Amino acid sequence: MVSLRALYLNFKDDYGDLLEVTDFSIATWLAFGAGLQLLSQWWLPFGLSSWLPLLYLIFRIARVSVDCKRIFTGTFTDVILGRWSATLPEPEDPSTMTATSDGIVMFLLGARINHPLGKLAPGNAEIDKIFKDMWVEAEENRTKWSYLGRTATLFDISDGEGITTFWISYWKDLKGLQEFANCSTHRLGQNAYPAKKFPYMGIMHETYHSPKGSWETIYDNVPPLGFGKAMYVIGEGLDGLELGGTLKPNLEGSTMYGRMGRLQ
User: Under CATH, to which class is 80-260 assigned?
Assistant: First the structure.
């Protein structure tokens, strides 16, 4: 029998990020706050309803004051201090090489909701689940599709009308990316789009292949981001795939050309 906790976690995975802070403008959030304040004055004693927002503001100020004194120890603990760069090991088996596996493939996938209701637009919850299932399928086929990982959901904060989101994913070769494009979950969304099942959804993608010696990275005092967050398969363990990270300490005095493996 499925436990209530399992049902809750499944619901959270599917719909937990359906509404986020970035989905509404500051003016809208202020209007929500004003509305809640009016409701609290209606239902609660005037003194209590007046003190609630002030107490919360005092709490926030106190918390920020404390956090400022413990940066990198109590807050921002995900930051990797120092200067790092991302690299990939050379393939051990030459027979697995393809025409594009000597470099990195970056796939930028974007979606825009062209509706005043934003994420509450008809059909958005369904297509949101399709996107999530698509990335789950990519994780399950890391070795087969040469999938290296992706960023978290990124937002275009300059979009003042719709909601535009992006995912940047990394692959070892174009063949694996093409197999991902043909997977069942991706096809589900791909077939629904021309059928106008999601008429308010805009879709775009960009694909880039950087051959060996044509890409480099640098990360300085940031958490794992972009390709620095990617993982490659080392082997198989008792609990599944063993993954290795791409981040390595950057050599002192290294240059852009040096990190690319070029003289200049």
Answer: alpha beta
Alpha helical stretches, state H, the chain? 4-15, 26-43, 46-67, 124-140, 142-145, 174-181, 184-192, 256-260
From 208, 189, 18, 25, select the one nearest 105 (Cα to Cα). Answer: 208
Residue 109, strand partner residues = 167, 205
Q: Report the C-alpha gap between 260 and 103 in whole angstroms.
A: 11
Domain limits, the chain: 4-67, 80-260
C-alpha 190/C-alpha 82 separation (Å) is 42
Is 171 in contact with 148 (CB distance < 8 Å)?
yes
Beta bridge partners of 243: 233
- pLDDT of residue 199 exceeding 90, the answer is no
pLDDT-derived band at 3, boundaries 50, 70, 90: low
Q: Give the three-class secondary structure for 223.
A: coil
Here the tokens at position 19 are 């509404």
